[in-house]
Records
---
Amino acid sequence: MTWLRALRRTARSGLRVERPRLEPLVALRAAAGVAIVVGLALWLWSPPVAASSAFGAFAAGVATFQRSWRPRPLLALASGAGLAVSTFLGYLAASHVVLFVLLLAVWSFGAGMAWALGPTTGMVASLTIAVMLVTVTLPTSVLSALHHAGLVALGALVQAALIVLFPVRRWGAQRDALADAFAAEADYARRLRYEPVAPFDADALMAARQAAELTPRQARRRPEELHGQRTLAERIRPVLASLADPTVGAAAEGPERERAREVLAVAASVLDAVAHSIRTGGPLELPERADALLSADAPGAELTGAARRSATRLVALLSAAVERAEGSGPSDATGTAHLLRPSVGELLPTAVRTVRRQVRWDSPVLRHALRVSVVAAAGYVLGAALPLGHGYWAPMASVMVMRPDFSQTYERGVARFAGSLVGVALASAITQTAHPGTYALAGLAVLSIGLMYLLMRSGYVVAQACVGAYVVFLLGMGGTQLEQTVRDRVLLTLLGGLLAMLAYAVFPAWETPRLRDRLAEWTEATCGYVAAVMDAHADPARRRPGAVRGALLDLRAAGAAWDQAVARADAEPVRHRGVSRSAVRDADAALSAVGRVGLLMEAHQPAKDAPPVPEAARFAAVLREATGAAAADVRRRRAPDWSALHAELARWPSDPAGDRVVRRGAELLADTLDELTEALRPRSAGRRHPAEGPGRPAAR
């Protein structure tokens, strides 16, 4: 992709406006926190102090809207602590330009490295840089640094207190995540009716698992209908796939296929009803045909063999999900305990190790931290040198749009400038026409930030328009000259955005050259999952219950990293290095099909008393050895060799221990891995493009 096309594409993405589900009560609560802080500061102190403290309440409110399963009060308090420290240090160094620039560079580097801990931590860290830049410019003395830092922390404390005193939809995030998982499976069941190998996006299941991790206090207070449901959702998915797949499930045509479609349709309606009950916390309402299926002794009377077993298992799992939603089942219907989330103190050593692993030259996080550090310091110096005034707008615009990847940095740069221009223009027109007083400006600032909280998920350009108006009203309340603010902020915001974009162009961290590493990791995780399923068939009596589940989680993590890498590389203005776009597409389809093989075999795991299948153990061992060599070949830009799998299959008897699932799964696996080899074979070596597979039937 050329630079011009990449810039045009990112500009369109940044200016896109969506229509998300609004949460007016949550937005009202966050805006009330800002209003309380501003009102108290105006009553007890002065407008400049009110403006300073309002930034703390605003930033803490923004932190609570970020994607995180931690309790919202904890997010507000954590962000308030970081904001208070950054404000205090900024005030101490503000009177010495050189010292402040050095502090800004060091603090920005640390905030950039915080992205290694996740996007929520990185976003909160970026807010601390912005607050440090803005608050130290307000009229005050160095001796009041501690006072102003305390006021910033007070804003976060007020936000946390409001969340505790006025909760909105208790456990709403966890309910939504679990409900989304069941709704995704309902949609999957409907698509399987006419597309037996339809793909399944496991993002909803991954989010549900993250939401199921609780602190001990949360585990004691969790609603009854959230107990055990996530594991049921995990177990329903492979059974749906095995019932619909014509290879190991219902026949491709005829009465058996029609009955399978009917069972899938009813399953979809049951899953939808369970999702609605979990989301709303209301009673479960099942359609009549669902009651008939769940109460039938032989739900798959027209089905035979593996399809009949899948239908019977599906009905049992759906019945358990219905019982859990109605609250009539045991407290842990699946026999699996809830996941305990480690405390912040327990996470500290892990966080240090995570950040330390990113200290290498090719790390995107380290490069992002270096870019933020240099741009923040350079932007501050340039803004102060230019005869525009309010030079902090340039570095603040830079640090708020910069992200570790190219597409988000450029999207946010365009959106921030466009949104800020609209917000500043509207706010300026209001102030210059109506000439509002101090309290009227405070009210307009609270209204602007309330709209931002309400519409912030509509798009970055909308949020920045509201923030631009908020800052103009707030600084006007603090005594800043509005005419100068409008002119300077537009020009300096443009300068800051250009600095951020230029920094990424000069010192990039492209994802495209790392695609082969991501593909190798996904290959290892996918084949490791299939090998774990094979081991479960090899010796059912001694299988470890968590082995398959752990391998599946590794597969999902590697698959998500691959999808993210492909999406980022697709938007980058660089040519492929070692793997073309067509090879990416074909390898993606082949590995997704490999994962589906493991998925189908997992759905037919034998009982504990089933006879062992020694051939499966040997095949799993050969698969692991071949996978290690194949991953190395992928990284070295070679086509992997799977001949060892075919050689092992040739030594099998015609019917290994009477287990047709194992033989059929091994044959499908070997053939599908050959498609991966063809996808990665260079064209000069006679590459034959594999036929287009069934979409993306991922096992993630």
---
Amino acid sequence: MGGQKFQYDESGGTFFYFLLSFLALTLIPATLYYWPRKQKEDPEKVKRQCKCEQCSLKREHMKTAAPWKGPKNLFIKFVIILGWIILILIAYKVSQFDYEMSNFDPYEILKVPVGASQAEIKKAYRKQSVILHPDKETGNEKEFMRLSKAYQALTDDEARKNWEKYGNPDGPGAMSFGIALPSWIVEKKNSIWVLGLYGLVFMVALPIVVGTWWYRSIRFSGDKVLLDTTQMYYFFFHKTPHMMWKRVIMILAASFEFDKKYNSEIVTRPSDDEEVPQLTKSLPNLGEKNKERPLCFPYSIKARALIHAHLMRVPLNPSTLEIDRRYIINKCPYLIQEQVNSVNQLILLAYARRIPKLPSIETIENCMRICPMVVQGIWEVRNIFLQLPHITMDNLRYFQNKKRPIKTLQQFAQLKPTDRRNILKSLSDEEYEDVMKVLGSMPCVDFQVKCEVVDDENSTEVTAGAIVTVTVTLVRKDLKTLFKTEPVVGEKGVENGIEEDNADEESKVDPKKPAWQKNRKKYNKKAPKTKSKVAPAATSSVKVKPDESPAPTVTKVEKANENVENSDDSDSEVDTNDRSSDDEVKNSNVEDDDQEWEKFQQKVHKRDGVLEGKSKMSHSVVHCPYFPSDKQEYWWTYICDRKSRTLLTQPYHITSLVDKEEYHLRFTAPNWKGVYYFTVCLRSDSYLGFDQQKDIKLDVKEAPTEITDHPQWEFENSEEEDQVADDGHESEFTTDDDLPDDDDH
């Protein structure tokens, strides 16, 4: 290979092949991925949309939220179309190369018929050479070379044989390898420009791009939160282990995402000097006089005022503060999730004895309480019915009926249609339809909990220090499943509906009640207590009535025959019993194997799901007209001890609950035996009034003592030798060292 020279493309033909393949490999996937597409709206989704004023304004803001998307999409389309035009031109040029190489016909080039004489060929050659000669004004060097090669192919005998055999007057072409780059790249006069371009791309542009990306990425955590913000959360939550939710809002507003020094997207206006102080004066309990840093910084006070105005639904200037409110509120769910993670990490550090103060369970729950408040734009202390469209403070008094007050959305959904309409009689039919759409799309979650000790002989028994696995099963349905339908009564009493008797009978059947309804036992005091009648046991003595004839006497031989028959029957019964018991054991073993295999498959499936990663798509988009963008329905689940106010498991953020999901929460059982009560909690990050909790009872037994010494594992050499000598074979517990070597035989 020494001394080999690279051959560059002199004519530029192979370079066009390189460009064609490179453009095709990059342009096709880029077109499929980056070509802007207009999303088609689902007609069913459009029907389910709420038509209230706030939802309509939100949809308009979302369409105009990114004004740069229009020019960006237009630029992307222009670049892709330009790339396809270049690709088509290069493909056409390459096809011309192939046509010239594969369609060499000397008769066609000389424009003479096949079988023409030598005189006719020479005459045609002279006529065209006068026109195509390079020295003439109309000359063409390339065409003149083709003309000369065609004349040679028809006049020279050897060239004619090569053309007839190989299709080329020069004979068979030799295969050559080279670099598909034009030769001007390696020319000496162009070397400075080539090296300059190389240095500009690889030594200037590439390091700047990589450094900029690296500098931006190291400033953020995995959840796109600034690391400085996370550090600030750690400081304040460690400083105040028991924190009220109003102070949590203060810390949330102090996030550095809202500071222009850390975030270039933040806009400061001259009008803020007038509008922000006016807004702070109109909001109570804002705490603007707090001197803690960065809680006292102007950006923090502005963000805090906008969050309070959002929760009180105060109208703002649409051209200034309203834009800032939408930006700040849109980032709050991510920041609240980071607060929950920060408090959880501090709890883990407190358990590891690395920090002295343990944050209370109320602190992490107060962080969770803020998220649905921000999403719905309402204080938790206000009525939860304000989450429904068209509901104002004037409508709330109809829910507070003295006979039967409605306190939850679930109770409102379970009312009869006439009762619901009477409560909202001040609304029009269209407004009432919007209320029922939103109410029917809200979650109705069946929350089930199962406690066990996995990979243990007795999974139901919990011993001290054991790993307890709590399986949380969530079945999500719409709240419209609780709606009651009223029958339409006609002439015959019931038409186009459900009969009242059948409805009463179905209502008597105790269906599976939702988790928020308490199970109330009804006792019938008038009903007498029924005693279960038990059949008396058969006695050995039998009394004979006087009317009955006495039993005939039995001889000894007959008794012996009967005993033999009975013994045979009993033996057959024993055999059948043994066979049936063996079959049952086999069947039980098969069932156990099947159950173990199913458990193994479930573990593999769950492991694959974990490897695939968390999905961020839940059941449906949350109805939140005051939240600036679409919000998915997420949940938190965790286990806590209310008595000691501690957290037992890390809060699991559920982001993929569509219909049914299972989650496993694991914690270590207490080290002392006794009865313990823990609470499994489920909290929504999107709606108020849908939190659930279930108490679990843990009867912790004393852990079995470790087996250190076992009598059958302790042997002395004398006992082993005696056993081998007496039995004539080796002991069952003999080790490999005690076996004789092959050389001893």
---
Amino acid sequence: MKAFSRLIFAVCFLIGMITQAQNNYPQNYFRNPLNIPINLAANFGAVRSNHFHMGLDIRTNSQENLQVVAAADGYVSRIKVERYGFGNAVYITHPNGYTTVYAHLNKYFDKLDEYVKERQYKDEKWEQDIIFSPDQFPVTKGQLIALSGNTGGSAGPHLHFEIRDTKTEECINPLLFGFAIPDNVAPIISGLYWYDRRFSTYEPGANGIAVKKAGNVYTSNVVQVNSSQISFAIKAVDKANQGFNLGIYDAELLMDGKLIYHFKIDKVHYNDTRYLNGCIDYTKFVRDKMSIQHLSTLPGMKLKDYSSGSDGIINLQDNEIHNIEIILKDIKGNTSRLTTKIQLAKNSDKVSSGDKTVKPNEAKTIKTENAEINLSKNAVYDAVNFTMFEKSDPEAVSNAVVLNGSYIPVHDYFTLKIKSNRRLTDEEKNKTVIELNYGSDKNIIKAKWNGDWAEEEFNRLGTARLLFDNSLPSISPSWKDGALISSGLLRLKGTTKIGDIESFRAELDGKWLRFARVKDDFVYIFDEKCPKSSGSHTLKVTTINTAGNTNVQTFTFSR
């Protein structure tokens, strides 16, 4: 019997060790990817537009071209060159099962940079996504791999750094790997909110509660609510000694000492990062630029490995006063606590929703006379009393179709169909785009036609319309035609009346020339393709806009 007990103990111990090993990340295996101390501008899990921040943004002291080095031994397994997103990026695969990513770079190390350049000229294409074998570009820990920059979707010089599970491609919080970043500052709480969960969190929305601070302890007055079903949300940031507003790593909600809800942001896959919109008060984020995180699970929020405990909805069974405690921790264990009390004062009557309610986990088609939207079962995180109507628009070849407004998120792509308000010729259809205006920006896509109906897919709500566009895209050079260029580059500015420049091709004296796209500009840095004292040159530029209109322009210069 004793031998059997010892065997059971040994098996349980082994299982525990295996489980612990799977949850432990190697400490001090990866080094700082810069040769200056790590100073964070953003951490893993910080709230961003339609996604979690998936790595660390490391400050480069407002400078570009700092040395970026390999965080550990491995090999360059991939590079990307793109207008937005990561800009220029390097992926290094390591033998311990992880891949590190370095983004917004200005330049790769010489041999890699030359390889990418040769591929670009071979493909006659600036944007690239290249996969490498382990023997092509092996690197050692601390080896120079690139120079830092401000390329892609970057608002200022910095290095974006990620650690991914090579097999699953999940992004893992890099701070779990033991980087030496001093931090003795607890999260800062600036707001508490409650929601009537008999309704959607979108309507009637958040109810604000004033918060008072004393050290790392926060309090509020007794919260009187008029619903027996409520949830909480918190407005808070982590400062981490460095001044920037970082995201919250760990949050717990307790009532009368019992855990009601817990979230922790350890890992997220890029396929799931849009679930952020179901973790925050999206309306407040878009309309008021406020980052408020739910301490509950919305019914359509399906991000795995994020939350534990119950769904966070508090069911008040009586009119007694109940104790609420919210505990926030950063990855170093610095802790803030908010304590308050809650009481059900009066249970107001619940109002039923209309027949246009879109619910999580249910597909829905909504139609007007000249438009139709098809939402998948994954479209919404919480119930939406969906409003859709048409209004006349003299600038468009359709009515403007209002799709509920931009303050409600959708998780995946929906299909939108709009009927033109007059019969269009095939030539006119071929120059028609669908514009979706969601307030802060517009998404403009070339229309696909089925009879008089245009169709496309979008993942934002707003106001949509059909626009006929026969205008030409245009390129403006930074020099006068025929001028002698003394600077080290050529810069062209692109403009369109509607949409974007979807295609750009430059030829120098009849041969393709590598221009990089920097936001709306196109930039060529002089190299051996156009050496000094090479005389007069002709630059032919062909651009195509979203509607498919093509413009060919010719410029001359000399060196």
